[in-house]
Amino acid sequence: MTKILIIGDIMGKPGRRGLAQVLPIWKEQYQPDVVIGNVENLAHGRGITNNTIKEMNALGFDAYTSGNHIFDNNAGLAECLENYDHIVRPANYQGDWAGHGYYRFAKNNQQVLLINLSGTIFMPDSISQTAISPFVAFDQIYGEQAQKDDIVIVDLHAETTSEKNAFAWYVDGKASVVYGTHTHVPTADAKVLPQGTAFLTDVGMSGAKDSVIGVEPQAALEAFVGQNKMRLQIPESGTAVVNGFYVEIAEGSSVTVKQLQAEASF
Predict the structure, then answer these.
(1) Active-site residue among 69, 157, 182, 184?
(2) Which residues contact 141 (CB under 8 A, 6 or more apart)?
(3) How far apart are CA 163 and CA 92, in angstroms?
(4) pLDDT by residue (tens digit) across 194-212?
(5) Known catalytic residue: 69?
(6) 166: CB partners within 8 A, 6+ apart
(7) Which H helix or E strand runs over 65?
(8) How far apart are CA 8 and CA 108, in angstroms?
(9) Which of 4, 33, 49, 197 sits 20 to 30 Å CA-CA off 222?
(10) Quick one: CA dihedral 145, 146, 150, 156, positive or negative?
(11) What is the Cα–Cα distance from 156 to 90, expressed in whole angstroms?
């Protein structure tokens, strides 16, 4: 049996500090073989830096997925890509994008193929107008890279629940685990599909609890009520919420799925 622990979008300092307290407890309790986190918002909501990735590496992550915001800090991204090969960005981005969209690694003699994809519905124009379908991209990567007895894990970074749901049914029996990121809001629908694929529409974020998807409420309200551009103002102290998705896989099929949530001060 292989145990997988997945952490959704890690949003700035609240997410990092909350994880530093919660993740060791979850690791002791569930003894996961593989730990994966989404880091597109790791450095104050805007991409990644070498120091913030080092913080996560110290917690024992095996690999990282991301999304469109990983390109908000190109200098930090370039340094991280040079130093680490276990960071991936959506594979279906077309054009001159840095990085790679899948990562193969082994844990406890088990091969894992991690794929990161982006949805195309309601995503920024720079993504939706250049990305190929995540359905097509999955077929290409799976056909070229998947090996017998692989555990195939897919992070679909997307806005709409319908696109995430349809994708999970499309890859049922091929992917071992499919989960959504990007909205920062956890959905209450963890399940195993008929052909053995574990699925959760969105894992949810690790970030400030008293916030609007990780941002100070007043900064968000200024955008919605005042029609100003949202300021990416992240709380400096308070309570963090940490969301996770735990999956057990046996003989190629997911047999246990569980949503996890905990709180910690930051």
Answers:
(1) 69
(2) 91, 101, 102, 115
(3) 15
(4) 999 999 999 999 999 999 9
(5) yes
(6) none
(7) strand 63-65
(8) 24
(9) 49
(10) positive
(11) 8
